[in-house]
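Example record for the data management plan.
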Amino acid sequence: MKRVDALALLTQHGKASALAGLATRLGLPLLHTDAYDTDRLGTFTGDVPRHGPPIEAALTKARLATELTGARYGLGSEGSFGPDPYVGCTAWGLEIIVWFDSLTGQHVHAAAQGPRTNYRQQDVHHLDEVLAFAAAAGFPSHGLIIGRPGQPWFDKFLPDLNTLRQRASQGLAQGRVWLETDMRAHRNPTRMEMIRAAADALAERLAYACPRCAAPGFGPTRLLPGARCETCGHLTSAARARLLACQACAHQAEEPLRHSVPAMQCDRCNP
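Corresponding structural encoding:
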């Protein structure tokens, strides 16, 4: 198949508005398709289980986008949500966007993450708890989901407070009710902001060509430990550099970050 020089996006959840700027920066038209039900790859509510890490789902979407449209390049977006990775006390969002070249098979990804999310889940027993949850989540500008798949009051498309009251009353008559924020992009403006941030990060990464093969996307893959303690000289687990790599030819290079760190980051001085 002859490939069109364009950037294809497969989404059912309105992500084209968040990724249009990326296409503009890459100088490519954005082709949107919804010809494949992406819920088949998994849903946040668990009625369709997710398999594999988010980056695999995003890459699958990017590949499908090129197959469905005939575009050379594809984009795939996937998010995940849970407790923060540091102390586990606050909600945390992670957005990954993958760029895929169907002619070379190369793919490059970038991510944005942080506590800017309304992600929340809760079992509630009274209507006032339902209303408090809705207010904290930003409903109705941000969507909510009530109940679990299979329950008569399960609803992923709550349009307004009156409908929420009705569904909640139905469930509360039987006992407690499960509530969760709707993390689908088109129902979550806060998540859309994080997707835009991930798109910006991807645009910046694609702007850097590999010094060996000139393929786009030469950038950081991981941190390298080994910064020395400025007091005792001991090698610490703190990062001394970033490892830059090319997915196309596997060329690697180190980017120094710092030579030393304070004693409070030293395992010997501050065990």
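Summary line stored alongside the record: The chain has a mean pLDDT of 95.
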